[in-house]
Amino acid sequence: MNLDEIYRETILDHNQSPRNYGHLDHPTKVVGLLNPTCGDQIQLELLLQDGKIQDIRFSGQGCSISMASASMMTEAIKGKTIEEALALTSNFKNFVTGGTSQIPLGDLEALHGVSQFPSRVKCATLAHNAFEKAMAEPSE
Ligand code: FES
Ligand code: FES
């Protein structure tokens, strides 16, 4: 198996068994974001406590790239501090537009090929942009 096949398998695996898909009983923050290029939408539910992402779920409809990326992101940021999570989303966005990441991205690295397809970058970054939007909104 070469690297590309491993990456393909990783994306397929997140599509077939998305991690953290669904809803939280008592989220402290809920955010939705639309990908205007296709009309697909993602929703994130977060349980924030002591500056950490104690729990996270995502739901919505989208292409396989957007769903895999959301699944990978939830896995990568669960249990992290908000600062660590924001560092991850910003490094991922840099990585997926052809730049480099300063930190390990875990399964998200499987999405490196997306940088060659600008229309797909919006798909791959939908969940990450939703998370950043949630963090930019004031808490109740
Ligand atoms: Fe998102 Fe084609 S996969 S525009
Ligand atoms: Fe809609 Fe990818 S085509 S999120």
- What's the gyration radius in Å? 14 Å
Q: Could you say which structural class the secondary elements and strand pairing correspond to?
A: alpha+beta
Strand percentage lies at 15-25%
By CATH, the architecture is named Alpha-Beta Complex
Number of folding domains?
1
What binds here, in terms of ligands, is: FE2/S2 (inorganic) cluster
Main β-sheet description: 3 strands, antiparallel
Span between N and C termini? 49 Å
Oligomer: single chain
> Which topology does CATH recognise?
Sufe protein. Chain: A
CATH C-level class is Alpha Beta
**What's the helix count?**
5
Range of helix content: 40-55%
Low-confidence stretches: none
The strands making up the biggest β-sheet line up spatially as: 1-2-3
Organism: Sulfobacillus thermosulfidooxidans
Family: Belongs to the NifU family.
Domain NIF system FeS cluster assembly NifU N-terminal: 7-123
GO molecular function: iron ion binding; iron-sulfur cluster binding
What does it look like?
The chain is of the alpha+beta class. It has a single domain (3-136), classed as Sufe protein. Chain: A, CATH 3.90.1010. The protein has helices at 3-16, 64-77, 82-95, 118-124, 126-136; strands at residues 29-35, 40-49, 52-61. It has a 3-stranded antiparallel β-sheet with strand order 1-2-3, with helices on one face. Helix 1 (3-16) packs across helix 2, helix 2 (64-77) crosses helix 4 (118-124) and helix 3 (82-95) runs antiparallel to helix 5 (126-136). One FE2/S2 (inorganic) cluster (FES) binds at residues 38, 63, 65, 119-120, 123.
